[in-house]
Amino acid sequence: MVGHEAGVGVGLIGLGTIGTGVTKLLRRNCAVLEERLGFPLHLVRVADLDLSRARNLDLGGARFDADAEALIDDPAVAIVIELIGGYEVARRLILRAVERGKHVVTANKALLAVHGKEIFDTARRRGVDVAFEASVGGGIPILRSLREGLAANRIQSVHGIINGTTNYVLTEMEKTGETFEVVLARAKELGYAEADPAFDVDGIDAAHKLTLLAGMAFGAEIAFKQIPTEGIRGLAPVEFEAAREFGYRIKLLGIAKLREGAPERIEVRVHPTLVPEASLLAKVDGAMNAIAVQGDAVGPTLFYGAGAGEMPTASAVVADVMEIAREIRRGTAGRVAPLSYMPEALRPKPLVPLGELYGRTYLRFTALDRPGVLSRIAGVLGEEGIGIESVIQKGRGHGEASVPVVVMTHPASEAAVQRALERIDRMADVTAPTRLLRIEEEI
Ligand code: HSE
Q1: Going by CATH, does the domain composed of 355-439 fall within 3.30.70.260?
Q2: 194 close to ligand 1 (CB < 6 Angstrom)
Q3: What is the reported pTM?
Q4: Domain 142-306 has CATH 3.65.10.10
């Protein structure tokens, strides 16, 4: 058996926020972990290029140096935890570990969304596990739930608030009326944001996570790059006010749905979304995450918790280590299909283009406050077959100032709405591109 004599040996690469949390949790809950497992976990080695990071940490006697490769190759290490993030170095280290027959635990959603196939295929060939619960929803055990607790279901939809930074920014902007930039700076200070916060605000982090969620929900091979992704930049204070007046709140959602009668294609998309004020997802505030999963047998379910942060994410990492350690002891490691479907059952599934979406739509025009502007906009919408359900105009333009005009349409196809917007945004009275927000009525 690979591993420590009296237990299972663990090596940790990356002593950043989550890595630090993992070392603390392994120490703090050492007794309860052993009571649950029946054997101890041993943190054998830790590696980080920044040797000052361990200064105030109790690593319980684990060897600490900058040599990640020696850690992987150390025969006392059976499970390698990769928490350095990023693409190239992390990919190389994970593949090295897997090739050497080591099991891997990672929180690296970006890497798995882009290079998952290569990593999972290599792991399968080598008969080792790659576990990644911490990569989606921080401490929420959503991947394990899709793989095990909901395994008897045909999953119909997944709607997730899966980026804490943007949920914090949206909540604060709505509550305080502060600008996007001010609130984002605070989110960075609180440690929610990715190293490059563009990943958060442009929806990329959510799309990484949705690639994994949708793949596991539907047994689909999904190309991350094909997921239509919009972030929260450019949302104006008026959006929050108008959404409230229409009975909605604004959330950045990752959405993955089966289409009625056409299960060969799936809807997978990330964008700011109007959700009904009374829905549970509308009540998820601050940096919290929540994922609503609808299964054909179980019906609606909701998973809620901290989607980021040192200890919540460490909770998911250590749980993965425990699961693999149990399997090592049972001799069953490497037999779990990490994406919840057997690899040969995974199918590439084409995504439904946004133009085929059909529903009510929120449109915020920015137009000069001249007589007849609204009727000219309404005229173009009408020519494209789009009815108006209600209109809100905020403030008055003085002289040549622009004002926001918010329209809730009747149900229409998005292709028709996009055609109308192309024409409207070229009108002389319209001074900025129109903001379109999609609505999810049934969550
Ligand atoms: N930047 C991510 C978030 C961290 O804000 O949710 C957790 O993946």
Answers
A1: yes
A2: yes
A3: 0.95
A4: no
pLDDT at 177: 85
163 lines ligand 1 (CB under 6 A): yes
Shortest-distance Cα residue to atom 7 of ligand 1: 308
Which residues of the chain fall short of a pLDDT of 70? 1-5, 396-400
- Indicate which atom in ligand 1 lies nearest the CA of residue 193: 1
The finding on whether 108 has its CB within 6 A of some atom of ligand 1 is: no
Query: Which amino acid makes up residue 83?
Result: L
CATH architecture for residues 4-139+311-343: 3-Layer(aba) Sandwich (3.40)
Query: DSSP letter string over 93-141?
Result: HHHHHHHTT-EEEE--HHHHHHHHHHHHHHHHHHT--EE-GGGSSTT--
Whole-number pLDDT of residue 393 = 85
Which residues, listed in sequence order, are joined to residue 378 by a DSSP beta bridge?
none
pLDDT digits (tens, 9 = 90+) for 192-217: 777 788 999 999 999 999 999 999 99
Residue to substitute in 135, 172, 200, 251 for testing ligand 1 pocket (most ligand atoms within 8 angstroms of CB): 200
